[in-house]
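Entry 14. Two folds queued back to back today. First construct below, sequence then structure tokens.
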Amino acid sequence: MLIYTHLAITLFFVLLLMPFAEYKIVFLISALISSILPDIDSKFSTLGKKKILRILQFFVRHRGILHSFSFLFLISLFLILFYQKIAFGFVLGYGLHLIADGFTKNGIKPLYPFKRKIRGIIRTGGKLETMIFVVFLIADLFLVLRFFVDIF
């Protein structure tokens, strides 16, 4: 999926879970950043186009280890032990990225290094993804309005 779809999906869940977050701004920022982080392994992604990340891309394949729940588990343990304030948002954003990419035709290897892939029917950048983006964007707007205007 494309960056804006990942951000729209993550924002939706952040807005739903915001009341349960102790550090709301940290939760929001860590979730949004981590929702695009797995794509640093792609030279075509917004983050992956940064020259400094070309070194990383030399060592990891797109939709390889960074697109696995194995990696998310390891990072989550580290964050829970040393950076609890960002752990909740990070796990949410990163996990949603993996779930969303699991619905694409390219899919993900959820238990890397095992080869088994899960995949779906959504073509990255295709009409169905665009429709999903629009639905989540509208839902995001309603949730934001709900926070600021008591009309619902």
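Second construct, same run, same settings:
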Amino acid sequence: MLEGLTSDERRALDVRLLFAHSEPSIHPEWNRTWLRAIDSWSGYDDLTKSELERVLIAEKERNFYVKGVIDYTYILNECLTHTTAPYIAIFEDDIIFAEGWLAKTAVAMLELSKGSKASTNWLYLRLFYTETSLGWDEESDFWYRNMRLTFALAIVSTLVFLLSIRACSARLRPRLDLATIAVLALIVAPAFTQLVFMIGKYNLFPLQGVVRMDRFGCCTQGLVFPRAKAIDLLHALEGRDGQTDSMIEAYADEQGLERYALAPQVLQHVGLVSSRDNLAINTQSTWAFWFEAQRPEVLKREHSKLAAKVDWKALRWGT
């Protein structure tokens, strides 16, 4: 997170770490010297006795639906209470950051607040998503939704094109006999049409910049909330239990709030073992593929340019 940040970026960032355990001192990283690099770390220092008892029960019963929401709301409240930051970012601990992640995020915030996508009706900017949750969608992709029409047009277009060439070119006519045309139109054209869909929507049309992602945005590895929306979300989640990411999405749907993502991703999930007893295949497939396509030297150049565009003092204090 902090590696490679400029001095202005680091001063603008208030980093608070929650050791999410009723006895935080048993964590192997508790009070390690590297913690001096961040602004604050703690266990559940501000919970009431009854709230801490709820944590103890959830830990004993391995009730992740209760514990997960407690952790999320606790650190969200910690950031809101102890900082004046205009944006609150919540990160999980099984991630790595791309060079320039903070500058790109700050520029995205400016675009959402003052730029071409300016809006006050958005809940978060997503810094991580996995392409395995995305793909061709019947609701938004006409040709995928109307697959029979797509294949029919591919066949007819190929047939008309080849017959036209055969009629107009005496030189090619011997090679374009009717059997060859039938194979090309009825087998080859549909096969290549299917191949286009198999390649994948986001391999053909990669996402770039700040993009709307109201659906299929998986997981809570890294979300950035405007301060006002973070307060509302905190009130909506407090005292409840469930799958945190699903609850956040349900809240956004209920309130009619927009959700955005930064593409390509600036975070990568590197966790191999789930703390919630999820299947290994689900944990290990939570992967940002386009994150891996980014080149370090390009990221470094982009970082320098973008960092110079941001008023880091305003970002820190919300002025």
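Quick look at the second one. The two ends are 24 Å apart (CA to CA). The beta strands are 16-18, 40-42, 87-91, 95-97, 122-126, 209-212, 222-226, 258-263, 267-269.
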